[in-house]
Hints:
The structure is a single chain. The protein is an all-alpha fold. The protein has one domain (about 5-315). Helix content is about 70%, strand content about 0%. The protein is built from 16 helices and no strands. α1 runs antiparallel to α8 (about 130-155), α5 runs antiparallel to α6 and α9 packs antiparallel against α16.
Amino acid sequence: MGMLSRIAESLYWLGRLMERAQGISISLQVQHSSSLEVSEYFDNSNWEPILNAVGQLSSFYKTHNKANPESVMDYLIFDLSNPNSIKSCISKARENARGVRDMISRETWEIINVFYHEFNKYDMDLVKKEGPDTFFHFIRNQGYSFDGVSEITLFRGTGYHFMQVGKYIERADQIARILDVKYHIPLKSVSDVGNPVDIYQWRTLLDSTGSYEAYVKYYTTKIEPMKVAEVLIFNKRLPRSLIFCMDEGLSSLKEITHQKEIFSSTRAEQKIGKLYYQLAYANIEEVFSFGLHEYLTNFINDLISIGSQMNVDFFGASE
């Protein structure tokens, strides 16, 4: 693999890993907020839903016997044997950033480095002492700082666009999984849909993704599950919606091929373009008719295929 490919891959994964840390934190916040409600409608001590949604249920049970709140939080936040824990993501992001210091701004490096050192002051005892919500807000605010500083200070060259593609592919994947966390939190019967606890969970999902104000502007303060899903999937003006992510990812891929003087679209560009237009010409009624869980599962599988194609098209992997 040539040096250019290694640098491009490091920048792409820097974008993905920083976004993944935020996404896992948001999923945990949704699950944690739901578990605080003493409810006759669902078992709030069972944390399998988040493991299922983030695709880590089987790996968790290789080392744990029970999915209770503390064991799941420790596994998804601090366990370095879990390559997708928040700690693993932040550590690998810093390692990637260190390797491409000359390709990112000094301010971007400083944000990542400070995040890494501040995060390492935490363990489960401190999380419990301060309260999980305080910790989740810390992760979210550090992520916002990284996004803001990198947006303001990075030169708009090929390296920037590789970071953007990584960021938006990962953001779309995480939002789809966060929606699926809510799907997997089981209610005891169909009649429980729309009860106060169910609505509270959907409101938490909007709050934790920074989407509540956008929801209120487009709809009302009344929380309706179908409309929550609609704003997070199809709203073109919401930076965390699936269609916004695919649009931005496609735009950056086109910039990469243009700047590298590739005059025909790559297969990765074709795949992300296809996924964008599938979103552009669908609607929420079709999604719920097909099944929200099934739709999100297909979407996540398409993103995995796009990620694999990026490896082939740009990072030297073989078909």
